[in-house]
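note to self: dont lose this again. the chain is below, predicted strucutre after it. 411 aa total, dont forget to put it in the shared folder this time
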Amino acid sequence: MELMDNTYKIQGIDVLDITKKYDTPLYVYDGEKIKSQYERLYNAFNVEDLKLHYACKALSNINILKLMKSLGAGLDAVSISEVKMGLKAGFEPEDIIYTPNCVSVGELEAAVKLGVKMNIDDIEALEYMGMNHPQIPLCIRINPHLMAGGNENISVGHIDSKFGISIHQLPLILRIVKTLNIKIEGVHMHTGSDILDVEVFNMAADILFQVADNFEDITYIDFGSGFKVKYKSNDYETPIESFGKSFSKKFNDYCKKRGKTIRLMFEPGKFLVSESGHFFVRTNLIKQTTSTIFAGVDSGFNHLLRPMFYEAHHEIVNVSNPNGNERIYTIVGYICETDTFGYNRRLSEVKENDILCFKNAGAYCFMMSSNYNSRKRPAEVLIYNGKDYLIRERESFEDLLRNQVEQEISF
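---
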């Protein structure tokens, strides 16, 4: 979103025109930003075989998935529904890697039937697959016991994490693999999100290389993701270009040592879509207390949970009054609980019916929305090649009742 001639625009389209056309609250995604982020990450590496699998839990609208496929991405799916969504979007089964956690045998069997790559993250599932599907090559998710990530809720590689098989259980893994004659085609790790220190990846690489050394049939090594993006204009981000250069050398040296080409894989989600997203809300009222000026908007943590759940920072802009005199506001929602998007933010003066924009609203924003307080979820719009497309309709009151069964019960 750029300020041009005193008007905020996305790909040349006035954002106020978008909110008039589709109403608020409204998620808008810049397809060109997604494309440029994909190309930036892909071009950062210089290896013989590279594949980026989009972590679709970040934003799984089928139109976004189709865009990712057109760019050449594979798909990282964590549920059977994400697998099915990927197939419906046109991904081939071999381009989908399924990485479940704490799922039932029934879900594993459903994924087997669909023919996708299986990434196993617990000993029991490894044994089950080896005993019941010995012909299927597997990937193993290793927990390297590295603490990483911008928040404890998104740090998933530490010693008490529920994700992955402990690196200390490698002897048990090897015994099961040998006993059941399991073919291991890949090893995988993911330590967390918002990782700024690239040394985490280098340490994890050393661990994964040691694990991979035990498997003759390795064809790929998957390093997950967790690259940090900017949430403020002066924020830090993972230095992708320099990291890609140094990591490529490290990976190429390992391939040379093994005497074979091994595919390097990453699973970016936030990095690809976060900065593409904009969440537009309308100001319902301005309310001043003894010490605070509240700007109350037509949304809440039912639409954008990250500030309340992760204490995440999203820049907020008054797009209705780009160059007004600044005042200090606390922006709050309409949910009947503490529901704060941002404390003490400097914004151009806000009035009733002004449109505010929350930046970095592409990843884990709409996807974590709910109908709490019986509120309807917002619409989604994709802007691509200078044209706006409605990619999800706004929910109606009828949608809230759609799956409820009203019974004739004598209460």
